[in-house]
Amino acid sequence: FQIAMKDLEIRGAGEILGANQSGAMKDTGVSHFMRMLQKTVEEIKSGEVSADIEEEENVTVEIPLSAYIPPSFIPNSDEKIQVYQELASAESAEHLDEARKDLREDYGTLPREVENLCKVIRLKLALKDSNLAAIRVHKLSHKAYEVTIRMGKNFRPDQMFELLQKSDKKWTITANALKLKLDNLPITWYEDLLRDVELLTPKKEVKKTKEKKPKKTK
């Protein structure tokens, strides 16, 4: 999970925000720890716990946003690391919004760099939901950019139907990626990109319940 951070070494930030993060409450944040605990309890109750746990596919985000926590916002290094971990450990957009709300209550108005950090994490969550492995916005020339979305191992071709029908962008589809060339980055480029990634989210199958036949009366 690659993010430009001026106040942390890139390798250290990668460990904090990447798929290899580990630890309990101190490292992941209390709210995330409680969510993991609740999820485990529910799995145990339902009998869904398996000894063979598939390793989660690492997701990377490379976009042109200055995303980090400035020293002026959180001077204390230990607190800053915990905030990084709490934001990065969000499992859904709702959990990320909760973390942002807590952050505002604890430290005040979020600077642009922190808002950008939340945008990067939000995009990563959308990629995971859509079975995508990576996204990269690469500058080709003075104004031209290329967007590359790499498919993950569980991505299915039928996930592209919504994108092809509803997106106003001309995506090029290759064997394992989607590519888009832009003459420039519009003001709404992030929102447009997030929307298109969400269009790739697989539709959940609705289970039909069998209607109970009325009992015959004698």
Silhouette? flat
Count the beta strands.
Answer: 5
Task: State the strand order across the main sheet.
Answer: 1-2-3-5-4
How far is it from the N-terminal to the C-terminal residue, by CA? 68 Å
Rg over CA atoms: 21 Å
Q: Determine the structural class based on helices, strands and strand pairing.
A: alpha+beta
Task: List the total number of helices.
Answer: 8
Q: Round the mean pLDDT to the nearest integer and report it.
A: 79
Tell me the β content. 5-15%
Instruction: List unreliable stretches of 5+ residues.
Output: 1-29, 49-54
Biggest sheet character: 5 strands, mixed
Overall helicity: 40-55%
Structural account:
The protein is an alpha+beta fold and 218 residues long. Helices cover 42% and strands 12% of the residues. It is flat, with a radius of gyration of 21 Å. The chain starts with 9 loop residues before the first helix and ends in a 19-residue tail after the last helix. 21% of the residues are buried.
Label this structure with key terms.
218 residues, alpha+beta, 5 strands, 12% strand, disordered N terminus
Quick overview:
This protein is α+β, with helices and mostly antiparallel strands. It has helices at 10-17, 25-28, 30-46, 77-88, 93-107, 112-129, 161-166, 189-199; strands spanning 60-62, 132-139, 145-151, 172-173, 177-182. It is built from 8 helices and 5 strands, in the order αααβαααββαββα.
